[in-house]
Specification:
It contains 2 helices and 32 strands. It is mainly β and about 575 residues long. The model has no long low-confidence stretch (mean pLDDT about 95).
Length: about 575
């Protein structure tokens, strides 16, 4: 899944914790005017990591008030302060926000302290033309609980919110800036955007405890610091000839990542052995052409193609196993082996969509597209001939509206073939390639709006994912997923939102299956003049559920027995948060 903030890419390529690492904790939800989504690898404008889809977070330019203060407190215990200011001066719009919170967490340990800031400044330059300046900053310090053997939790040997290694933690810092020009002249419209991002992530985790190193333990440090920036833009032309309409868009996307990362074996955050050190650059260039044609009132055709190239350059040092020695019957460990990284990869991604509209409120569509997820730099250091893993996807479906647009229904069936599926590995604390995979799925979306202030929604998804060549199911992929929403926003100021989600059983490695769960959240609020109060209750029904589940072997106690089976991180218990806000 690719994500962006006003078009600025947020995924971190070749991250030490996994390709395309995506940290959204820096966002302040109250500063977002909306979220634009695209499904599947069907849009030529979208490149790396967009094989499942794209989400673009859109910040407000200004709010209808000059400022607001929001205070919050939760049962964790937790507290927060949100300050926002918005205004227009000299014809320009500015929105600024700062959010600070502290949460003791529901696990032991689990506390987190974080601060976020956002500034969005818009300078109008003429009709339909503007310059936007965006800044987002973030800093967080947290302590994290373990992923625990499920058998120990069920036997009562440890509380599901407890920890075996109490020294795990995650720290993160980010500074992001973007400058965007967008304008139009006659049938032409264009956009040019430059951006820069600095990000630091420091992770201490322990998945197997004492299984790999019975003397020092298996805690693992992953450190990643990067500068990345880029320039991207597009030019669009609209034309009409009688009943025919054409929209042609060409675009260019460039990005440079300068990365320093390391992995260490540690004990209680103290260095035991440096596992690897890497310093490298990753340079990406993408070109695309997107053609949208309305051939008749009842038929539209979308054709596109993009070409992407990625250059990797750098070096590092890596502990690795050498060749098997027939004389000693051992495989020696080569420490700090010098590694040179010099690789190139490329991908051509065609796209095509066909939309029939037999009735004004009824569409039938067929989509096809090829996407890709860039290869990790560390992987290419050992396999420089590897190519970019390609994803080929197709979809057929229908979307219809009834009752004057108050009821919207969509149904689709799809398939996706991935050349290289990455799966989490507990020994390295990151995802590793496991071969080709095939997914088959079906989606149902239902939206009902009987009144302008009342919305009912349900999404139901089924997907079956398997490795090709008899490799079995893709771990951690549930076959069933459902969301339910009831949203009431009365003109008198009262509001009520119920959100439920069902995640079916997930197949795991070693033949295990995770339990299914259903979690229901509720939020009630009331607004009167400048005052607003709300109460949110997460996990209203008190469900016992697990956020992540993996199956492998660990040794929870030094000198103890190996434990095989599911290992879990707990989902949150029933938590309540109250917020009081005033705007002026």
């Amino acid at each position: 899944m690719a994500a962006s903030l006003d078009g600025i890419p947020l995924n971190e390529v070749s991250h030490v914790h996994g390709e395309g690492y995506l940290d959204l904790h820096f966002l302040i939800p109250e500063t977002l005017s909306g979220i634009r989504t695209l499904k599947g690898p069907y849009d030529a404008r979208c490149g790396d990591h967009s094989s499942a889809g794209v989400i673009d977070f859109l910040p407000y330019t200004r709010r209808p008030w000059n400022g607001s203060v929001t205070l919050g407190a939760g049962t964790n215990p937790a507290g927060e302060v949100l300050l926002q200011g918005s205004g227009r001066w000299l014809g320009m719009d500015t929105l600024a926000a700062v959010h600070v919170d502290h949460d003791e967490g529901f696990t032991d340990p689990g506390r987190m302290t974080a601060a976020r800031a956002l500034l969005h400044h818009v300078v109008p330059l003429g009709p339909g033309t503007e310059l936007r300046l965006l800044y987002a900053g973030y800093g967080a310090r947290s302590e994290a609980s373990d992923i625990l053997p499920l058998s120990w939790v069920e036997d009562g040997r440890i509380d599901r919110f407890g920890a075996i290694d109490r020294t795990n933690k995650v720290d993160a810092d980010r500074h992001l800036a973007g400058l965007t020009f967008e304008g139009r002249r006659g049938p032409l419209r264009g956009r040019l955007q430059g951006y820069y991002n600095w990000k630091r992530t420091d992770i201490f985790s322990n998945y197997t405890f004492w299984a790999l190193d019975p003397e020092n333990g298996d805690q693992h440090r992953q450190y990643d610091q990067r500068h990345y920036g880029g320039l991207q833009g597009w030019l669009r032309h609209d034309a009409r000839r009688r009943d025919l309409r054409f929209r042609t868009e060409v675009g260019l996307q460039t990005r440079l990542d300068v990365v320093a990362q390391r992995q260490d074996q540690t004990t209680a955050r103290h260095l035991v052995n440096p596992v690897n050190r890497y310093g490298f650059t990753e340079t990406a260039l993408g070109l695309y052409l997107d053609e949208r044609m309305t051939l008749a009132p009842w038929v539209r055709v979308i054709l596109g193609v993009r070409a992407d190239a990625i250059l990797y350059n750098g070096n590092g040092r890596q502990d690795r196993l050498g060749a098997f020695d027939i004389y000693t019957n051992t495989t020696p460990l080569i420490e700090d082996d010098p590694i040179r990284l010099d690789a190139r990869a490329w991908a051509i991604s065609p796209k095509a969509s066909l939309v029939f509209t037999p009735l004004p409120d009824w569409n039938l569509f067929v989509n096809f597209g090829r996407g890709f997820v860039s290869a990790e730099a560390r992987q290419l250091a050992f396999n420089p001939d590897d190519t970019i893993p390609v994803v080929n996807g197709g979809e057929v479906g229908t979307r219809a509206a009834f009752w004057g647009g108050r009821v919207n229904v969509a149904l689709a069936a799809w398939a996706a073939h991935k050349e290289s599926e990455a799966v989490f590995d507990s020994e390295v604390g990151a995802s590793i390639p496991r071969g080709q995979s095939l997914r088959l799925g079906a989606d149902l979306e239902l939206r009902v709006t009987p009144r302008p202030w009342l919305v009912l929604a349900t999404d139901l998804y089924w997907v079956r994912g398997r490795f090709l060549g008899g490799g079995g199911p893709i771990p951690n992929m549930a076959e069933w997923f459902m969301t339910n929403v009831l949203s009431l926003r009365h003109p008198g100021g009262a509001r009520l939102t119920l959100r439920g989600r069902l995640l079916g059983p997930r197949p795991l490695d070693l033949g295990y299956l995770s339990p299914a769960y259903y979690v229901l959240d509720v939020q009630v609020g009331w607004q009167h003049g400048p005052w607003e109060v709300s109460v949110a209750v997460e996990n209203l029904l008190g469900a016992t559920w697990y956020d992540s589940v993996y199956a492998y072997s660990s040794r929870p106690l030094q000198g103890g027995e190996i434990v095989e089976g599911p290992h879990v991180t707990p989902g949150h218990p029933t938590l309540a948060t109250m917020r009081l806000g005033v705007s002026f």
